[in-house]
Design goal:
Layout lengths: L11 E6 L5 H13 L3 E6 L3 H13 L1 H7 L9 H18 L8
Parallel strand pairs: 1-2
């Protein structure tokens, strides 16, 4: 969804380890890949660590990287961790019964 509408400036390839993500995650990725002309979702055998090997090789090739304007997005960073922590607290608090009003 994040790349929809940017077809003229962005082409996104998503690799994920086949059989190692939840059915919900896979469905979300495949749906986005089928509805966005610039999103290409590919299931690959192996682990996410196995997927890093060819990706790292491409990023080390300076000529290829520059010619194809490669970039990467990694979900492991402190900002995402902090945002997700807030979601867990929000989810927990929203499941609690309402507190009694104090008169």
């Amino acid at each position: 969804e994040a790349v929809r509408g940017a077809e003229d400036v962005l082409d996104c390839v998503v690799l994920y380890p086949l059989g190692r993500v939840s059915r919900v995650q896979e469905g979300q990725m495949l749906h986005a890949g089928s509805t966005s002309a610039n999103a290409h979702v590919v299931a690959v055998e192996g682990t996410s660590d196995d997927l890093d090997v060819p990706c790292e090789a491409l990023f080390r090739d300076a000529r290829f990287k520059a010619a194809n304007r490669l970039g990467t997005v990694n979900s492991v960073n402190i900002t995402r961790l902090l945002v997700q922590t807030c979601h867990f607290f929000f989810g927990y608090l929203s499941m609690l019964p309402p507190a009694a009003e104090v008169a």
